[in-house]
């Protein structure tokens, strides 16, 4: 296959991976409505019609999620919010395989094996809607590639330390969890390339700026906890801040960690088609290991354990990521789904085990993996289109709501029986904030990685997003103008008719408006 043909095929596969993001207006990603709502608030904080400034303020400090919210802020200067979001996700879908290819090449492997990353683009983490975490993934692989080159370089440093330092800082500013994995990988690369203490010290200098950013974020939020006068609130959402000695770590049984491995990579769709993609991916990767799991020619990377690890740096990094998945907790204070997020890094680094070049008869494996990725992309597009039927009419409900007010989502049916098995409707009420401004009952604002905080006393009381049955009108109801209920309400939510009127119904949702609230069309009310 000629280089020109390879580039053409690669472009086709990359574009196919991004295409499903444009298959419907609403994407079935669990946390996405929350991130879109906050992105809208950050971008239009001073807009009086949106009413954000009554509830929120920007946090003056270091916040890792700027890696997602800053590009969204820039894009929304020229694009509508939802279009900007699609551009970010599309760029991410292209950047993941490209960055994996760069990392493979930097680790001494053939970049063409990055074709195995393509079926992993539509992975479980994506459908959880972990937008900042997703942005961190291609930054991680770019930084790993630069770190690998820096650890092996013999000549003058040139611009390499600056590029590496910038990449490390970018990883931190996207997601702390990914940054910690990157530090572990960078330390391993320096260790296996060890050429003395002075050499190791010089190779550590590029990481100092990102470490300073990490310390500026970590120390006030976790090492000591917030000071009494801290502007960072203890929200009702989680115990978000605390001491490093009291993180409340929760571990899963190891049998469950191993058993749920396929689900946490491909277990997204209700019809089991994601698992079918996973089986095909694993079989093709196994075949590739049989055909290309040895180098075309021997390498002289030294002797002993360190020399062997130096020759197998990519494999070492994939095992480190897998170990993080297997042995880290699933939850600590302020962060859920901790260890499982590392699994996708181990899978994306799996092609590093393919030591031989993807040439000659091995190209057949590349073509098969490319065909699998096209099938996975087509399946993802169908699922996005099917999700539009599940939420048909919801946009009309949002348009019936006046801007700049406050809505409480009470989601009793979280949508797991649709085309996507995640509870994708859990945060759907936050689309009001994304499209009309105002505030929502449960919000990510105030969490330690988010650059938006509630003003003092501005957060309304609300039930946990997983426990709408805990809604109490006397404690919570008067704080809200609208209520979005999905599914059959129980508890006091079933008696909303005593205090509110039905505005409209669609797609299993009922929109209620508080009876003694501001008159329709009167705009935001003072609080």
Describe this structure in words.
By secondary structure, the protein is of the alpha/beta class. It has two domains: 3-30 and 79-224 and 245-383, no CATH class; 394-514, no CATH class. It contains 20 helices and nine strands. It has helices at residues 3-18, 32-43, 66-75, 81-106, 124-127, 131-152, 160-172, 176-192, 197-204, 208-223, 254-259, 261-266, 273-292, 304-311, 313-327, 343-348, 363-390, 394-399, 431-436, 473-476, and strands at 56-58, 331-332, 335-336, 406-411, 439-440, 452-454, 482-486, 500-506, 509-514. The strands form three sheets. The chain has a five-stranded mixed sheet with strand order 5-4-7-9-8. A two-stranded antiparallel sheet has the order 1-6. A hairpin with a 2-residue loop joins strand 8 and strand 9. Helix 1 packs antiparallel against helix 4 (81-106), helix 1 (3-18) packs parallel to helix 17 and helix 3 packs across helix 6 (131-152).
Q: Any chance you could write out the topology, listing elements then pairs?
A:
Blueprint: H1 3-18, H2 32-43, E1 56-58, H3 66-75, H4 81-106, H5 124-127, H6 131-152, H7 160-172, H8 176-192, H9 197-204, H10 208-223, H11 254-259, H12 261-266, H13 273-292, H14 304-311, H15 313-327, E2 331-332, E3 335-336, H16 343-348, H17 363-390, H18 394-399, E4 406-411, H19 431-436, E5 439-440, E6 452-454, H20 473-476, E7 482-486, E8 500-506, E9 509-514
Helix pairs in contact: 1-4, 1-17, 3-6, 4-6, 6-7, 6-8, 7-8, 7-10, 8-15, 13-17
Strand content: 5-15%
The figure for the number of domains is 2
Largest sheet: 5 strands, mixed
Number of DSSP helical runs = 20
N-C termini distance:
67 Å
> What best-fitting shape do the alpha-carbon axes yield?
globular
Helix content: 40-55%
Strand order of the largest sheet: 5-4-7-9-8
DSSP, total strands: 9
């Amino acid at each position: 296959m000629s280089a020109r043909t390879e580039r053409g095929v690669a472009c086709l596969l990359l574009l196919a991976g991004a295409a499903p993001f444009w298959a419907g207006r609403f994407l079935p990603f669990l946390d996405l409505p929350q991130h879109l709502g906050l992105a809208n608030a950050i971008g239009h904080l001073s807009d009086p019609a949106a009413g954000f400034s009554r509830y929120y303020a920007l946090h003056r400090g270091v916040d890792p999620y700027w890696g997602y919210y800053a590009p969204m802020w820039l894009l929304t200067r020229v694009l509508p919010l939802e279009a900007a979001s699609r551009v970010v996700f599309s760029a991410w879908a292209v950047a993941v395989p490209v960055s994996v290819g760069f990392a493979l090449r930097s680790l001494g492997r053939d970049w063409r094996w990055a074709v195995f990353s393509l079926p992993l683009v539509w992975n479980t983490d994506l459908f959880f809607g972990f937008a900042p975490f997703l942005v961190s993934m291609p930054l991680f692989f770019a930084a790993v590639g630069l770190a690998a080159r820096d650890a092996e370089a013999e000549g003058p440093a040139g611009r390499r330390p600056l590029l590496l330092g910038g990449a490390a800082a970018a990883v931190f500013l996207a997601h702390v969890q990914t940054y910690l994995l990157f530090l572990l990988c960078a330390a391993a690369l320096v260790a296996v390339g060890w050429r003395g203490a002075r050499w190791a010290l010089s190779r550590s200098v590029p990481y100092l700026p990102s470490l300073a950013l990490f310390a500026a974020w970590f120390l006030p939020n976790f090492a000591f906890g917030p000071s009494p006068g801290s502007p960072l609130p203890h929200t009702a959402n989680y115990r978000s801040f605390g001491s490093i000695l009291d993180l409340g770590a929760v571990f899963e049984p190891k049998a469950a960690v191993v058993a749920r491995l396929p689900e946490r990579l491909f277990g997204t769709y209700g019809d089991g088609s994601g698992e079918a993609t996973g089986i095909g991916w694993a079989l093709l990767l196994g075949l590739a290991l049989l055909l290309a799991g040895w180098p075309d020619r021997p390498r002289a990377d030294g002797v002993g354990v360190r020399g062997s690890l130096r020759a197998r740096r990519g494999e070492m990094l994939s095992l480190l990521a897998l170990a993080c998945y297997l042995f880290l907790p699933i939850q600590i204070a302020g962060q859920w789904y901790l260890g499982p997020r590392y699994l996708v890094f181990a899978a994306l680094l799996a092609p590093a085990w393919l030591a031989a070049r993807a040439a000659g008869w091995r190209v057949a494996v590349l073509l098969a993996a490319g065909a699998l990725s096209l099938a996975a992309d087509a399946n993802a597009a169908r699922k996005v289109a099917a999700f539009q039927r599940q939420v048909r009419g919801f946009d009309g409900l949002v348009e019936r709501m006046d801007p700049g007010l406050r809505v409480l989502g009470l989601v009793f049916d979280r949508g797991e029986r649709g085309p996507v098995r995640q509870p994708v409707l859990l945060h759907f009420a936050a689309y009001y904030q994304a499209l009309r401004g105002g505030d929502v009952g449960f919000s990510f604002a105030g969490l330690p990685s988010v650059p938006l905080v509630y003003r003092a006393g501005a957060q309304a009381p609300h039930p946990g997003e997983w426990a709408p049955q805990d809604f109490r009108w006397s404690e919570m109801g008067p704080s809200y103008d609208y209520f979005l209920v999905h599914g059959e309400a129980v508890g006091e939510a079933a008696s909303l008719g005593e205090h509110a009127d039905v505005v409209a119904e669609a797609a299993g949702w009922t929109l209620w408006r508080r009876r003694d609230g501001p008159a329709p069309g009167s705009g935001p009310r003072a609080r």
